[in-house]
Amino acid sequence: MSEFPHVLPTYNRAPLSFARGEGAWAIIGDGTRYLDLGAGIAVNVLGHAHPDLVATLTEQASRIWHVSNLYRIPEQERLADLLVAHSFADTVFFTNSGTEAAELAIKMARKYFHQTGQPERVEILTFEGAFHGRSTGAIAAAGSEKMVKGFGPLMPGFRQLPWGDLAALKAALSDQSCAVMLEPIQGEGGIRPLDDADLKEIRQLCDETGTLLILDEVQCGMGRTGRLFAHEYAGITPDIMMVAKGIGGGFPLGAVLATQDAAAGMIAGTHGSTYGGNPLACAVGARVMEIVAEPAFLSEVNRKGGLLRQKLEGLVAAHPDIFEAVRGQGLMLGLKCRIAPGEMVKAGYDQQILTVAAADDTLRLLPPLNITDDEIAEAVDRLDRAAASLNG
Ligand SMILES: *Cc1c(COP(=O)(O)O)cnc(C)c1O
C-alpha cells in the first residue's frame, strides 16, 4: 500500500520549513536567513515576531482566549471601534478568514434586498481574475476554471465580467442586480489595479441602479497600498467591505465592514461564528490597527513603496528577457514576467529570498510594511542575482 501524504496534498510546497522569524526575515533550522517578500501572502504586515504583537498576544493568552459570541467581548468591541473610526463603516462582523468574510458579504447583500422588499435582486456581478476564497460561494463568485472544475453544481446568482470592462458592467446591471463585488487591486489575479476613475464610475453606476458595492480588500487593505484601504485613492466608499490577511498581523482574523444601511437585514440570529472575533485575535488586531492606521506609518509605506518600485524598474530594464513591467501600489507590487513566475520564485530560493507567484505571469512582492530601506535594497540585489541565474 502506498503512503498517502498525511497532509492533504492540495499545495505544491517548496522544500523549506522555517523555525522562527525576525521582522522581514524567515529563518530555517540551520540558521539560514531568507528575506521574506511574501509575508505569508500579505499577512505579516509588521513582520515576524514584532515585539508589540508578541507582548499583546502573550498578555491576552494569560488572561482569556475564548468565550464565544454569546457574551460581550471587550477586545472585539475595541477593534470594531478602531475600524469604524478609520473607515466608511458603521458596523463590523469578525471572521477567522477572508473566505468567511466573503461569505458574509454575499449573504448581507442579498439579505438587504430581501429586507427592503426587492427579493428578486440576487445577482452578484464579479470580474474575471477575481479571488474571494475557496468556499463554495467564493469559488462561484470568482468562477475561474481552475477553482470551480469538478466542484459543481455551483451556487447560482453570480456573473463574471471582463476585468475593468465598464461597458460590460453597464450592460449587465439590471433589476436583478444585487451587488458588484471586486478587489480594487486584484491580488491572486496578478496585482492588477483598477483605475481610480473606473472605481469612481462603478460607484456611480451602483448608485444610479441602487446596487450595492462590495469591495474585497482582503489583500490590498490594511495599509498595504500606502492608504489604510485601497479604495481611499479613488475618493469613494463601498457599502460592504471584506478585510482579512493583514488585519491580524499573522493571527487568523477577518472582518466584514458595512454601512448601517447595507447591514439592515443582519438582525440577531441571521449570522454567526463560534470563533469569530475571539479575544486573542481581536487583542492582536487592535494593536495592529493602532500601529498601521497612524498617518506617519502609512506615509512611510508610501515612501518605501516608491523606493522599491524605482529599484524594480531598474531590475526590469536590466533583465528585459525575464521581466516586462512593474505594477501595483505601495508595497503591493507585481513584476509581470516573460517567463513562468514560478521559475523566478524557485531561483529566489537559491538567493534566500521569498516571493509569491500569481496569475497573469506575475511575481508578487508583498513585504512586511515595516521593511527597512536597507532590506529593500538587499531584496532587489537578491532578485537581480536570481534573474541573472535564469539568464545564464
Ligand atoms: C486571500 C484572499 C481571500 C481569501 O482569504 P482566506 O483568508 O484565505 O480565506 C479573499 N479575497 C482576497 C482578495 C484574497 O487575497
Automatic annotation (TrEMBL):
Cellular location(s): Cytoplasm
A GO molecular-function annotation: N2-acetyl-L-ornithine:2-oxoglutarate 5-aminotransferase activity
Cross-referenced PROSITE patterns: AA_TRANSFER_CLASS_3
Record SUPFAM superfamilies: PLP-dependent transferases
Cofactors (names): pyridoxal 5'-phosphate
EC number: 2.6.1.11
N6-(pyridoxal phosphate)lysine sites (modified residues): K245
Gene Ontology terms: biological process: L-arginine biosynthetic process
The UniProt record lists the keyword Transferase: yes
Pathway: Amino-acid biosynthesis; L-arginine biosynthesis; N(2)-acetyl-L-ornithine from L-glutamate: step 4/4
Keyword set includes Oxidoreductase: no
Binding site for N(2)-acetyl-L-ornithine: R134, S273
Cofactor binding description: Binds 1 pyridoxal phosphate per subunit.
Principal subcellular localisation of the protein: cytoplasm
Binding residues for pyridoxal 5'-phosphate: G98, T99, F131, D216, E217, V218, Q219, T274
Keywords: Amino-acid biosynthesis, Aminotransferase, Arginine biosynthesis, Cytoplasm, Pyridoxal phosphate, Transferase
Residues annotated as signal peptide: none
GO terms under cellular component: cytoplasm
Reactions the enzyme catalyzes: N(2)-acetyl-L-ornithine + 2-oxoglutarate = N-acetyl-L-glutamate 5-semialdehyde + L-glutamate
HAMAP family: ArgD_aminotrans_3
Family (UniProt): Belongs to the class-III pyridoxal-phosphate-dependent aminotransferase family. ArgD subfamily.
Additional record remark: May also have succinyldiaminopimelate aminotransferase activity, thus carrying out the corresponding step in lysine biosynthesis.
Subunit structure: Homodimer.
Protein name from the UniProt record: Acetylornithine aminotransferase
Lineage of the species this protein comes from: Bacteria, Pseudomonadati, Pseudomonadota, Alphaproteobacteria, Rhodobacterales
